Amino acid sequence: MKRASLAIILISFVAVVFAAGFINIQIQMNRLLEEKEYNLTIKNVAIGSWENLGGLNYVRFFNVTIQNDGPGNVGGVTLAFKITGNQTNIQYELMWIEPDQMGVLHAGESKLIRIYQSESLDNIGKFSGCTFVATIMLDNLILDEKTLVM
Questions:
Q1: DSSP 11-70
Q2: CA dihedral defined by 97, 100, 102, 104, rounded to 10 degrees?
Q3: Domain range list for the chain
Q4: pLDDT tens across 88-134, in order?
Q5: Residue 47 and residue 62 in contact, taking contact as beta carbons nearer than 8 Å
Q6: Is the domain 40-149 a CATH 2.60.40.10 member?
Q7: Side-chain half-sphere of 95: how many Cα atoms within 13 Å?
């Protein structure tokens, strides 16, 4: 009976030590991630003019240049973009066409992301005075954001 109790105590002790070690490793990993310096910025946002595709269909391009000025390569970065309205809160979805993935941004590298908006002639006027917002993120950490009035 005493042997069984001693075995249970020993197993419990080993489990506690293992769990404490695992938690300590997680804390150290989180600290390393928090301390890592990311220096990704949106260097430029350019909004093109409306171009007629024929008939009543128009398109315009948004060019977003992202620069990695940090000391190392960064992967897993996402780019979010939206248009919000001037009088009403327009949540407008844009198409991202070039490149189709961000991939890894190497130290000192910049990437040009092309986004397009397609509209009919009778709708292009409603975007006057709206804002275009581009945001780059790593997981839930916002690294940079730029806003332009259209």
A1: HHHHHHHHHHHHHHHHHHHHHHHHHS---EEEEEEEEPPPEEEETTEEEEEEEEEEEE-S
A2: -140
A3: 1-35, 40-149
A4: 555 555 655 555 567 788 999 999 988 888 888 888 887 888 888 88
A5: yes
A6: yes
A7: 8
